[in-house]
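General statements about sequence and structure are easier to judge against a single worked case. Part of our work consisted of pairing the sequence of a single chain with a tokenised description of its backbone. The amino acid sequence and the backbone structure tokens for this protein are reproduced below.

***
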Amino acid sequence: MLSHAWHGGPLVEVLSAQGKQPEGAFKKTGAVRKVFDKSVKGYVLELEGGRDAKVQLPAADKETLGLLQPYLVLQVLVPPGKGFAIELAILDKSKTRRRLHLSCNCQDIQATPLHVRAPLHLVRRGVWLNLCIDVAGIFQEAFTPVTRIADFWSIESIVLTAACKVRRIFTVRQPLRDTSPDGDDFPELEVESWLHDVEELPRSVDFPAGIENWTQVLHMAKIRHVLMLDAQQKVAGDSAVRAASPRRGGAGAGAGSAAQVLNDGELSRKSGSRVAECR
């Protein structure tokens, strides 16, 4: 579909809700509609409901996108408390087709030679994002432990599952500069230390002036880091509850302490974990 497009430029546009791009360019199922969104002063694709609401690119199952640039950017708004998933079919350099499924319903990284599932907990919600996914990096790190050849070649298809609003989808050659609060939330991660060349969002696909939006870069280091933090919080919470459990001669005090620990633990999980937002 886009294999003959010029991939040497700053971006390759895959989907736009603006203008007159024909709806035949993508396949939609469930509650998907094109609506005017005042928050971005333009049209967007709105996916509502449950897992039945999907947008698939390309529209025909036998066609392929052939996207060679390794960073996929979605201009997307994900509402709080809703499910959201991205599935990519990817060719490696041996021309083997593998699938990468990113979902907020996934709790850990699960890998087989042809299919990887990874969590999407850290996606910012309730704000328009330029969600820049390091497809090549995630693909290589996820599949390398389970297969010999895991070098990215091209993105063959994209499937988005509700709930979200989508303004544009495109690919870029280099990662975009991360402007999200991830650097404040994970100061120990050094969010951009892994990047060599960072580019600004191309003006041709930028949001209108005055529209609040962040650019959030998603790579495997962030995914693993959030999983590590969630695991540490779970262990700490379990240990605190055991330490505060009722003992001989102090059942009442112990129960009260345990209740306080549970309340504090719940507050801690809400502030530090992304998992609760996806359930």
Residues 155 and 221 are 21 Å apart (CA to CA). Residues 249-273 have pLDDT under 50 and may be disordered.
